[in-house]
Specification:
Layout lengths: L14 H10 L2 E2 L4 H9 L1 H10 L2 E6 L4 E6 L20 H20 L6 E3 H9 L8 H18 L2 E4 L2 E7 L3 H4 L2 H5 L1 H14 L4
Antiparallel strand pairs: 1-3, 2-3, 4-6, 5-6
Helix pairs in contact: 1-2, 4-6, 4-9
């Protein structure tokens, strides 16, 4: 081993690329295997560097994802400017996230395949029940494609390679839509339905 404790045939873990990926968004084990391994070896340094910016590392080794979030300000501590912005989501996108989270919970309860794969049609059918009725199917599908694209951009859905109309629900969704949020699910859906009934354009 060399002075850093790394075996001679093994490369040194790189801190800067790991930090950059985390500042840009979520780091997934499946997407960035090398950076993921570096993160596991450099956890202490990553936490120290993130802490300087008022951020904390959220790392789930079992599910294979990691991200940075704003650390809550403690009593008597000066609040730092927010580095990780809050995302403002439209009602249809919020609704879609809620339905996907509920579907993920139901899927986990079956104890089957750990991956939840849904088709574009299945996702649309889930949301259709809570959207104003329309006779324009093309318009509905175009709007749904926009909502699905936004959820993909947020990192909660991933298109399957070679199957553009099939998606994997990323398990990080469970970290953002927690059990307490799910417990209020029925009331939230009622609120969404009322809002969408009053605003066809979302």
């Amino acid at each position: 081993m060399n002075e850093t404790g790394t075996p001679p045939n093994e490369r040194e873990p790189a801190l800067s690329p790991v930090l950059i990926l985390l500042f840009k968004g979520v780091l997934y084990r499946d997407d960035q295997a090398g950076a993921w391994q570096d993160l596991l070896r450099l956890q202490a340094q990553v936490r120290d560097h993130a802490g300087v910016f008022g951020l904390e590392l959220i790392l789930d080794e079992a599910e294979g994802y990691a991200y940075l979030r704003q650390r809550p300000t403690e009593e008597g501590e000066e609040e730092l400017p927010r580095l990780v912005p809050r995302r403002q989501l439209s009602y249809p996108v919020s609704l879609l996230l809620a339905l996907l989270r509920k579907k993920l919970a139901e899927h986990d309860a079956t104890g089957g395949d750990p991956r939840l794969i849904l088709s574009r049609e299945q996702i649309t059918d889930m949301v259709r029940l809570f959207l104003p009725e329309t006779g324009d199917e093309v318009r509905l599908m175009n709007r749904m494609d926009g909502h699905i694209k936004r959820v993909v951009e947020l990192g909660f859905l991933r298109r399957l390679r070679g199957q553009e109309e099939r998606f994997e629900v990323r398990r990080i969704l469970a970290a953002f839509v927690d059990a307490q949020w799910l417990a209020e699910f029925d009331q939230r859906l009622a609120d969404y339905r009322q809002h969408l009934d009053n605003d066809d354009d979302g």
